[in-house]
Structure formats: C-alpha cells, structure tokens
C-alpha cells in the first residue's frame, strides 16, 4: 500500500533515494524547456507499452528541482498557497524564531488572523513578505556594491 503524506509533512530521502534522485535529475534536466507544456513518455515497470503524458512545463521544472534537492539529501515539503500556517510553521519557513515571527505579526508586517489566542498566517502572505524583504536586501546589497566600487575598496 502506498504511503499517504500530509502536504506539510517533510519528505526526507534515504541515501538510496538520494542517489537515484541524482541520476534522475541529471537525466531529466536536459529536457527542461521554456514552453507552456511538455510531453513526457513513461513506461511503468511491467507495462507493455509506453504512454505520452502532457504536463505543464512548470511542473516538469518542479520535478527536476525536487530531484535535485533530494540528491543533496534535503527534505522536501509542499505548502499550498492557500494553506493557513501556525506561527511555528511560518517561523520555520522564514528560518526565524517563533517569538520573532510573532513580533512581526503583531507589528502588522505580515497579515494574520487570530484563532482564540493563537495567530494563523496564510502561506501566500508569508511568501509575499519574504519576497518583499528579499527585494529590500538585494537593493541594499546593490547600493553597498556601488559604494564599494566608488571608494575603490578592491571589489570588482
């Protein structure tokens, strides 16, 4: 019987799975295209004939990315954009402490709702916050790079 995983449960690959993922990701990466959809052909073990399956190109790139991460031994976790997260789940995704995340919520930097005394955060709001702070960080680094070059600090 197949194992059913909850969407938020991490999948940690075994050593054998990591090795197989490395081989698979290398084999598939050459087929990634910037098209709306891609057709792949599958031949399940024991099947008598192969079958062509058309999937969105973004799903194919995601598959290759998943295999690449598994090859590195990294845990994989899927989070639907409409998911409502606990403060601990949200803090884990941002790689910050839960108290720090709660302070961001209480400061209004990330939208949330209250369920009794607990906060709940929509994944899409958390992702928007992360994109915003990442863009701010890149802009700051760009400014520092320009300043370092203007001051001839030896960075090329």
Protein model, in words:
A hairpin with a 2-residue loop joins strand 4 and strand 5 (118-122). This protein has 2 domains: 15-71, no CATH class; 84-150. It is α+β, with helices and mostly antiparallel strands. Helix 1 (15-29) crosses helix 2 and helix 3 (87-94) packs across helix 4 (98-106). It is extended, with a radius of gyration of 21 Å. 10% of the residues are buried. The strands form 2 sheets. A 3-stranded antiparallel sheet has the order 3-5-4. It contains 5 helices and 5 strands, in the order αββαβααββα. Residues 1-5 have low confidence and may be disordered. It has helices at 15-29, 57-71, 87-94, 98-106, 123-150; strands at residues 37-42, 51-56, 84-85, 113-115, 118-122.
Describe the structure concisely for a colleague.
By secondary structure, the chain is an alpha+beta fold.
Distance between the termini: 57 Å
Shape descriptor reads extended
Q: Which residue ranges are poorly predicted, with pLDDT under 50 across at least 5 consecutive positions?
A: 1-5
Order of helices and strands: HEEHEHHEEH
Alpha-beta classification: alpha+beta
Structure summary, number of beta strands: 5
Number of helices: 5
> Which strand-content bin applies to the residues?
5-15%
Count of domains? 2
* Mean pLDDT figure: 88
List the strand order in the largest sheet: 3-5-4
The rounded Rg comes to 21 Å
Share of helix, binned: 40-55%
Largest sheet: 3 strands, antiparallel
């Amino acid at each position: 019987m197949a194992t059913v995983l909850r969407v938020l449960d991490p999948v940690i690959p075994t050593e054998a799975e990591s090795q197989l993922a490395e081989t698979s990701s290398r084999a598939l990466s050459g087929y990634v295209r910037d098209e709306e959809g891609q057709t792949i052909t599958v031949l399940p073990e024991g099947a008598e004939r192969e079958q062509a399956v058309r999937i969105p190109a973004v799903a194919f790139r995601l598959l290759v990315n998943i295999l690449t991460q598994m090859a590195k031994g990294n845990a994989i976790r899927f989070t639907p954009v409409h998911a409502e997260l606990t403060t601990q789940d949200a803090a884990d995704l941002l790689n910050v402490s839960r108290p720090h995340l709660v302070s961001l919520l209480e400061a209004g930097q990330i939208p949330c709702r209250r369920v009794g005394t607990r906060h709940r955060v929509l994944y899409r709001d958390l992702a928007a916050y992360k994109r915003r702070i990442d863009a701010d960080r890149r802009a700051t680094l760009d400014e520092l790079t320009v300043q370092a070059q203007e001051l001839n600090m030896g960075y090329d």
